[in-house]
Design brief:
Helix content is 42%, strand content 9%. It has 358 residues and is an alpha+beta fold. α1 packs antiparallel against α2 (32-58), α4 (171-184) packs across α5 (193-215) and α7 (282-295) runs antiparallel to α10. It is globular, with a radius of gyration of 19 Å. The chain starts with 14 loop residues before the first strand and ends in a 6-residue tail after the last helix. Mean pLDDT is 92; it is low at 1-8 and 55-65.
Length: 358
């Protein structure tokens, strides 16, 4: 399927794993060891975001590749050597032996795990369905506190060592960012308001599914945390986000308290962060968690299949709100599984987080 477009064409994509509000709070710290890396990260992100907006508006939608669809990934890893010029120096290509750089090897493995889940669970070859090569760059910037997908490739910072560690540590972060590419090539959800929060949530969902798949975990065994292992020891918290219990991932003197709501009752109205895309994503995140644990077993098999069907089905509009997405998941559950327990479980999950499906 080609990327969904509307009257504005292909939507610009620049998606980071660490929300701007977290970096903004860090940038106001009285401790220069915390504030300076956060400021540099915010500045670098602003430049990349503007650059991506211009290039995306000028770009034409991708055309399908010719020939057989690849059944194996084609990964290429680069080292930015703490600079900001992308992609950097090539250090590992598909099939090469592991390097002496653990960040390179972790990124290589994470890209491969994402490819494997998409192909084995959903029959999709890479994020575009046509075997698109997967590109990643590590060691981006100096103490860069983020990871991002810029519409073309993955980029990972090393963190400042005080608040954030190397962004290749968490496989769900690698998969989360790559899943933004999956959304770009399917529903192309506009990155603002509720459609933007859905964009973020879809990435959390598939990021968590890749982690569960790679670890062989059932829905009951999974921690449902996004970015576990990224926070430095001094931080009071477990991860960047919790799909199981939005709003509980961290509560720290420097970072503040996780602001994610778990239901529409606490929906956050804000103009920051493109209308709170990283904040309100907690609502559809929890709906997915509730569905997956209600169904049991491997979350990618039924709950994940329903979400994938909606994302790739062609009916989800680029400006969809939570209610539209919810209605389509109900329809997808019925189409895929019939009038069995799956459809009722979907209805119950959205009802629990306060999203209407009628």
């Amino acid at each position: 399927m080609q990327p969904r477009t509307d009257e504005d064409g292909l939507h610009p994509v620049f998606c980071t794993i660490v929300p701007p509000h977290v970096l903004d709070k860090l940038s106001h710290s009285g401790d220069a060891r915390l504030a300076e890396p956060a400021r540099r990260t915010l500045e670098a992100d602003a430049i990349r975001r503007d650059r991506r907006r211009l290039t995306a508006l000028a770009a034409a939608p991708a055309t399908p590749t010719a020939g057989a669809v690849p059944a194996k990934p084609h990964r290429t890893l680069y080292d930015c050597e703490n600079g900001t010029s992308l992609p950097g120096t090539k250090v590992r290509d598909e099939g090469d032996k592991p390097t002496s750089d653990a960040s390179v090897n972790r990124a290589y493995a994470g890209l491969g795990a994402t490819f494997d889940l998409l192909l084995s669970a959903y029959g999709r070859s890479s994020i575009d369905g046509k075997g698109l090569p997967l590109i990643g760059s590590v060691h981006y910037g100096h103490e860069y506190n983020n990871a991002f997908f810029d519409g073309e490739q993955m980029v990972f910072g090393d963190g400042d060592g005080e608040i954030f560690l190397d962004f290749t540590y968490a496989i769900d972060v690698i998969a989360h960012e790559l899943a933004h590419g999956l959304t770009q090539y399917t529903a192309n959800l506009r990155y603002e308001g509720q459609s933007g929060a859905l964009n973020e949530s879809v990435s959390d969902v598939f990021g968590s599914l890749v982690k569960q798949y790679s670890l062989g975990q059932s829905a009951e065994q999974a921690d449902w945390l996004i970015g576990a292992g990224l926070l430095a020891p001094r931080v009071s918290g477990d991860a960047l986000r919790s799909m199981k219990a939005p709003g509980t991932a961290y509560d720290d003197d420097v970072l503040g308290k996780d602001p994610q709501p778990a239901s529409m009752e606490d929906y956050v109205e804000t103009e920051e962060d493109n209308g709170g895309v990283h904040i309100n994503s907690g609502i559809p995140n929890r709906a997915f968690y509730l569905l997956a644990t209600a169904l049991g077993g491997n979350a990618w098999e039924r709950a994940g299949q329903i979400w994938f069907d909606v994302l790739t089905g062609g009916e989800l509009t680029a400006t969809a709100d939570f209610a539209e997405f919810a209605r389509l998941t109900v329809a997808a559950a019925g189409a895929r599984f019939g009038e069995r327990g799956e459809k009722e479980a979907v209805l119950k999950a959205w009802s629990e987080v306060g999203v209407a499906t009628a």
